Amino acid sequence: MSAKRVLIAEDSSVIQNLARKILEFQNYDITAVKNGEQVLQILDKEDFNILLLDINMPIMDGMECVRRVRALADEKKAAIPVVAITGNAKNYTEEEFKTAGFNDVLVKPLNFDRLVEVVNQLTDK
Fold first, then answer.
1. DSSP three-state, residue 74
2. pLDDT confidence of 2, banded at 50, 70, 90?
3. Which partner for 102 in 67, 84, 118, 122 could form a disulfide, CB atoms 3.0-4.6 Å apart?
4. In which domain, by residue range, is 81 found?
5. Which of 88, 90, 122 is nearest to 104 (CA)?
6. Residues 38-85: pLDDT tens digits?
7. CATH code at 22?
């Protein structure tokens, strides 16, 4: 069985690299991009099991990106589990994240056990 594919959108390369290492160690196949626009471009061509979206990104942020994903014509892609990564959760309520289309929220500094737990849970690994 092939590895589950994770798409991480995070403009901080430190967090991106840490998350990549942690999840690769769990045998996930990781693709990383820097903003929401790149997420939509790559989603158009490839399939993923889960998206991890930073909320504050240049060009297109996580909130806008998840709304666009949920509105995709491809129903399978529109239903992909999406997790928010946020450094300032206080800006949004849990309700706002849910309404936007997120399945779960991870707060920075990232708790890596929680990251693995959420990704495993949402990809049924």
1. coil
2. confident
3. 84
4. 5-122
5. 122
6. 999 999 999 999 999 999 999 999 999 999 999 999 999 999 999 999
7. 3.40.50.2300
CA nearest 46: which of 12, 5, 104? Answer: 5
In the three-class reduction of DSSP (H, G, I as helix; E, B as strand; rest coil), residue 76 is classed as helix
Sign of dihedral through CA atoms 48, 31, 25, 57? negative
pLDDT, one tens digit per residue, over 75-106 is 999 999 999 999 876 789 989 999 999 999 99
Structure tokens at 79: 């239903």
Number of other residues whose CB lies within 10 A of the CB of residue 44: 10
Structural domains counted in the chain: 1
120-124: long-range contacts, CB 8 A cutoff, minimum separation 24:
120/26, 122/50, 122/81, 122/83, 123/4, 123/49, 123/50, 123/81
Burial of 68 (0-12, 13-18, 19+ CB in 10 A): middle
Neighbour order of strands in the sheet with 82-86: 29-33, 5-9, 50-54, 82-86, 104-107
Alpha carbon of 63 to those of 27, 38, 43, 79: distances in Å?
Answer: 28, 14, 16, 16
